[in-house]
């Protein structure tokens, strides 16, 4: 097995347990990884501001983060790579939503910022979950601005409406845009090049590493491409069976410090 020189890890259900607490042994491992010059990169659907407190707690703010499932890879304010939603398709989508699905809450993510038309109940729930505060603005005007790059949309409503919306969008022509459910009532929208696998490839290029020198760790279906692509793909013990069968190794669950155990076993064992 190759010597691992880069670790890419999911956050929720991976380094965080079911009570949203950090793997209790990770903090003591971070200085050892830094000493060995092994970056520990967090990759998540979260925004940069949603990842920042965890990165700070781990003491790894000098390492890149892959936000919005890899739509934006950055170190501090420095952008390493980004994939924004095609502007033409974005405007068509916004026009369609306002006319045909007016109850859907449209949440726009651009860089570190979260924009909404109004503080509806769905926005308030999301703010409570993430601890972030959105900026209220005219989305129609904001999206029209050519300079405003949009990394993700989050569309929220009741589950039945979001399912109907997803089925309707599948029949429409959005060749450069991906739509996927992150919850039964959350529809995420990104450029179709965005994935944690693509983020891994871009980070491999940034650090000039071969895939065999990278370990990835995750617990869910959207982590599968990343787990399959890395030289050492590790699934969490709490991952579904379909995820585990794609991995080279399966570690303990997120409630049993599975990530720190994998790092000790496969990266810092020598």
TrEMBL record:
Signal peptide: none annotated. Pfam families: Hydrolase_3. The lineage of its organism: Bacteria, Bacillati, Bacillota, Bacilli, Lactobacillales. One of its GO terms (molecular function) is phosphatase activity. This is Haloacid dehalogenase. CDD domains: HAD_Pase. Gene3D superfamilies: 3.30.1240.10, HAD superfamily/HAD-like. GO terms for cellular component: cytosol.
